[in-house]
Amino acid sequence: MRKINKPLAAAAAAAAVLGLTACTQTTGASAPAPQAVVNTQNQSNIEVQSEEEVKVVPDKAEVSFAVLSQAADPKSVQDLNSTDVDKVISFLKSTGIDEKSIQTSNLGLQPIYDWDDGQKITGYEMRTGIIVSDIPMDQVGTLISSSIDAGINNINQISYMSSKYDESYQEALKKAVETSKVKAEAIAAASGRSLGEVTNVQEISSYNENRYTTYDADSSRGSLEAGAKQIAIEPGQISVTAQVTVTYSLK
């Protein structure tokens, strides 16, 4: 008859229970469930994975605009788009935005087709993206509305960020390590052992991946003009998460 290692079986059962409990406590629906794993090759160690989250209110924003121009031929649309972009950039600078916070990107030129007339080219369209960063949160709504009047006819994205992100991430890391110890102690006790010292800590979260919370707001000029004066910005909170794997010795 096959013998069952009771301490190890108890540890596995405790790990399963803790895993289910952790799932109910996870604040983000897409966040992976924290895991606790007993290293069966070396039963003097226990490895625990833990994730924690800290909420922070954003105080800055980055807005991705675009200027879209149309004309009969490539040269005309290039000249028109250049004039429109210069007008917008001049306006942005006049509002007090630092030149370093204004970046042009995603320059594109393409023909306009009349598909009902055998794919006939009827004109050309040119698009220039403009990214404006480091906008104080209380100025975002006003800036967007005013930019539409200045010639912006597309808003692609609004990204929210916090100057306290680094501080919040460190707090989430600390909480994740503390949570790992609570889990490890419970598993060790369930297996008839006691928890020893930390032998290894590994940060497994992506530090920059969730630095910003992004809202897609791609719109046409017509809809923007209709609602320009009613734009309201509600950034909510940024979720800052940290995930670690901690290995403890067992006594």
TrEMBL record:
Signal peptide (UniProt feature, chain positions): 1-22
Short name of any one Pfam family annotated for the protein: SIMPL
Superkingdom of origin: Bacteria
Stored Gene3D superfamilies: Protein of unknown function (DUF541), domain 1 (3.30.110.170), Protein of unknown function (DUF541), domain 2 (3.30.70.2970)
Sorted UniProt keywords: Signal
Claim: Cell wall biogenesis/degradation is one of the keywords in the record: no
InterPro entries: 26kDa_periplasmic_antigen, SIMPL/DUF541
This protein's name: SIMPL domain-containing protein
The species this protein was found in: Clostridium boliviensis
